[in-house]
Specification:
The N and C termini lie far apart (about 45 Å). By secondary structure, the chain is an alpha+beta fold. The strands form three sheets. It has a six-stranded antiparallel β-sheet with strand order 5-10-6-7-8-9. Strands 1-2 form a two-stranded antiparallel ribbon. Among the domains are: about 70 residues, Winged helix-like DNA-binding domain superfamily/Winged helix DNA-binding domain (Arc Repressor Mutant, subunit A); about 80 residues, SH3 type barrels.
Amino acid sequence: MTEQGSRWSSAVEDYVRAIYGLVERDEPVTNTTLATRMGVNPSSASGMVTKLGQAGLVAHAPYRGIELTAAGEMLARGVLRRHRLIESYLVSELGYTWDEVHREADQLEHVVSDRFVERVAGKLGHPERDPHGDPIPAADGSIEQLQTRMLDELEAGSVGQIVRVWDTDPELLRYLSDRAIKLGERIEVVERQPFDGPVVVNVGPGAAAATHALGRQIAQSVLVAVR
């Protein structure tokens, strides 16, 4: 595995970002879950993990699966900084919607220069979160962690604010947008229906709140800062 100038190959960057993303979601990092995330077969993922290990970017931890090393985590955060700042720029300056930016940023993150990224950060006022509420790592790799809970984990009566939505499914993001379920909105869990039924929530302030029955896929994609 070699670097291209001061950059790793796009494949390496994609894999370390994918591993970081699985960890963010508290999902196990195995060759199988990584293959699913990357849309490849498990043997391909296994081969890349071996190369990442040889490059010192990942290690196998007993009973925990694949983990990023300190170098791998720094690389992943650098990629995420480019990705999330590009998403922010596309929404803020070019009129993209939050469901359109992920795929664009996937392409652009590998080709923009560090100078360009820092110019974007300055133009946007050095934002701490992207359009989906994902934290944007600082230039030194540090990252602000916000205490959140998955909507699917909350009990009836819980009240909070929507602060983050996983961004990998554009259709899910469009569904939420169409129903004004967005970042910053107050959300209250009214009822959790049994047998894997939907989570019934009120979204919005006071008497203006709208009631929605949200299935498990959505409830596992919305993160809430509980009051």
